[in-house]
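Table S2 (continued). Query chain:
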Amino acid sequence: MQGASRQALVAVRERLTAVRTELADSGGSAGLGSIAEGLFAVVRLLDREGHLRRTFGDPSLDRRAKEQLADELLGGQLDPLALGLLKEAVTQRWSSSRDLVDALEVLAVTAVFLAAEADGSLDQVEDELFRFARTVAREPELRAVLTDRALPDDRKQALVDGLLEGKVRPATKRIVQALVLTPRGRTLEDGLEDYSALAADVRSRALATVTTAVPLDDAQRERLAASLSAQLGRPVQLQIEIDPQVIGGVVVHVGDEVIDGSTRHRLATARRRLA
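Corresponding output:
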């Protein structure tokens, strides 16, 4: 997102944060789940109904008219807090109507992660999403089925249930379900990466994917996390992937940045110098 949309996203995320605080103060953090479900439903609706999407995203329309339209169409169907966030979003100024829908999806996913943070399961959810992403990357047939546009949604839902029901946290399953049923033009891997970054952002952490030849013990993880945190200026969440081809050392991906301290990289560098 650029310009106006970036500022609008900041505003609606701040509103979600305020709602989370209000729920926590009243002991009702479970309401975040209802917010997420309502916003996911709105995302599906606006993806499907282009005219409505453009109406809500039109900066020339009066904000009160947009709020009234949201009340008329969805007032009796959405959780009141989800409706309030929708009205907050549609009255912001967006560079495009697609940016509005993207922002609503960000709010829905963030609400899922805030609920997981509230019940103490967010670390586990982050790890489960990472493991599922690696499973998808290793099994192209599974990816092909999950992303098959010709496969009805109920079949995809049944497949997700069979893969994950009782094996992961409910938040993990909900996130995977959202990506499988509403990919919104992304690959499954890209969607999982985007959502994992949002999970880290909930606690103002950077997400670092670390590839190493052998598992790291707790002390090694702590030292690496501390070193990366010092470089990046904020706490770091590590996701560890094992790849024997690394030989030794580690390769770290933080967003688009790559820190290659692997033995394989050092050997390749030495060969180039000798040549």
